[in-house]
Structures are given as C-alpha cells and as structure tokens.
Design brief:
The structure is a single chain. By secondary structure, the chain is mainly α. It has helices at residues 2-23, 25-49, 60-95, 97-133, 174-197, 203-241, 247-286, 291-301, 307-323, 325-351, 359-373, 377-406, 414-422; strands at 52-53, 56-57, 160-161, 164-165. It is built from 13 helices and four strands.
Amino acid sequence: MRFLRTQWRSLLLIGFVLLVLIAFKAVLTPFVLSFALAYVLYPAVVRLTRIRFGRHHVPVWASILTVYIVLIGGAALLVSLTGPPVLAQLQKLIDNIPSYAAQANSAGDKLIARWQATFSTWVLNAEEAAIDDGTIPSPSGDANDGAGGSTSEPPDASASKDGVETEPSGAIRPNEAAKAVSEVKDKYLAKLQSWLEGLGAQMPILIEALIRSIFNFFLVLMLTFMFLIYFPKLFAFSRRLIPVQYRAEFEKIAGDVNDRLSGVVRGQLLICLVNGVLTYIGFVMIGVKFASLLAFVAGVLSLIPIFGTIISTIPAVLLGLTQSVTIGLSVLGWVVLIHILEAYVLNPLIMGDSAHMNPLLIVFALLVGSHYFHPIMGPLLAAPFAAIIQTVFLHFLTREEDHGVSEPSLAPPATESSALSTT
C-alpha cells in the first residue's frame, strides 16, 4: 500500500509539471530553452570560476562572458566556414527544383507507361483465356456471311460510353486507370509549383518571423546568463522547499537526474557533430550533390531521436537517385552504416548507461512534445524530459523494492530471540 501511495504521488507530481508546461507553453518556451542551454554551459562556467589570479578566483559574470565569447566566436567561425557552401548549395537546389520536377514527371510517365503495358497484356491474356473457356462470347461474331463472302465487322474496340473507353468484354480499359494516375500526378506537381511560386508573397511573414527570432535569440541569451548566475541559489531555494526528512532523498534524485542528463544532452550534441562530419565525408566520397547541405541537415536533425534520422535520410536518397540508382543506394547504405556505428560504438562510448531509454518511451515523448508543447522545440527537448521522468520514477521504484527486501531481515527469528533471552 505504501508503495502504491508513493507511486501515485510521483505520478501526480510529474503530471502537474507537464500540465503547467502545456498550459503556459507560449511563455515557458524561451525559459525552457534557456535552462537547457545553461545546463549545457554550466560545467564550463564552474571550471573557469576555479581559476585563481593571485588570491582571487575568476568572478562568475566574467566566466559567463568568457563562455559566451567562445561560444559565439566558435559559432561565427563555423558559420563563416560552412555557411557560404551550404547557402550556395541551397540556392542551387532551389534553382534546380524545376529540373528535378521535370525529371520526376518524366519518370512518372515512364512508370505509368510501363504499368499500362503490363496491365494491358494481363487484361488481354485473361480475356483470351476466358474466350477459350467459353466464359464470354467471341467478339468477332460469325466468320462469314455466306452469299457475299464478306466477314462481319468486329465491334469497335475503342467504342466508348460516357467518355470511358472499354474493352470488347465491357471492362474498363487500362488507359482510363493510367489517365487517372497521370491526373493525380499532374495535380500534385501543380500544387508544388504553385507553393514555390507563392514563396515571394510570403516575404512579409518571413521578415516578421525573422525579427521575432532575433528578439527571442537575445532573450534566450539574457535568460541563460541569469540561470548561470543563479543556479546554486535556485538549487538551494528548491532544497529549502523540501521537508527536512526528504532533503537527502531530494539531493539523491537531483544527482541521478544530473548524471543521466549529462549523458543524454552533452553526449547527443557530440554525436550530432560526429554524425554531420561522417555524413559529409561519405557523401563527398560517393559524389552526391549538395553534400555540405545534406550533412548540415543530418547533423542538426540527429538531435531528434529516431525521426530526425528518417527525415534527413529521405531527401539525401532522393537527390542521390536523381543522379543514378547506384548513388542513391550508396547514400542509403552509408547512412545505415553511420547509424550502426552510432548505435553500437558511439552511444555506449560517449553516453554509457545514461542513454538507456525504451524506444517506445522516446517515440511517445516526441509525439507529446511536438503536439502539445512546440512543433520544433518539443521534439528537441522530448528526450531530456523523458530521461528526467524515467529517472524520478525508477528512483521511487528502486527505493520501495529495496525497502521491501530489506525490512523483513531486520528482525531476528523468534526462536533465536527466545534462545538469547533464556541464556
């Protein structure tokens, strides 16, 4: 009973926190992002504050500014090195979209023609077999007229009713099915072209979004600075809110959460970097176009477990197929090889046991984060939040199981106690 009460309390606490996050998601998004960024940068700030100049340590604000300078400088250097080729390849990709659309249209026409020929042959063979079996009458009718020696005309195979071409047996011709498929293809290609042409009309909205993004960027930097300064005070304040008898357990939970998050968050960032570099090297060796752009997308999207890999692989394979089937299959094989290396070498080496989460839990967290919290930040923060929830739940579960095993062994057997009392 005590175990169930403890589990219900932990579940209610987790549910309350999730409800608060969902209810105030519009306001909490920059705070959550700032907290996550501060958590990643905090170890570097702590190491800098331990440096001594004479009798004085480096102030916290100076350590934070140093980390900011290194971070922003490194980001600027990375953008200056990778930005021009990525943007150039992105512009080239946009310019080639009509060409790729024409290639897709031509490939679709060839596929439809091949399918139509195969289906027509199958229909005609089935019809001939039915005529031979006598299931349907022969469309040619009588062979001769007798007096004039003329033959009767077979019914027109291309006769149509209400614009639908039919076979002599009355079945719809394959031309109609192929025509329907072609119309659907043309419809969606027209929608894609219309969407691309409408990008120019969306420029005011894009400019507004850009201004909002710049404001949010500086807001996140400011909030991150405040979190880095007040991290120790926030932890001390949270500790004072806990009753005295539970403070040791609170510190144990906080330590477990920190150990797991340090593996999941910082390890995942390192794996993303390795993923992007390996993707770029492989795509350059294979000779696929837009290698820099595809490697950048693969590195960024690998922050999202499971789905990020799928989303980044699809365009890479499709672009490879526009060059040749061999290149497309080589791209797919290289991506699979990278993720085998990631699963069996990088994850155990970098993250260790901290990354062990059930894939079903990760997928559920991704769906909840994208649907209820934020379409972009939700999937990015889903895995860390799932790690926190799993750590808290497993802590209470392990504690109750340990109590359940250890408590009966505290009392000595009755026979031994009676024997001791008699002696």
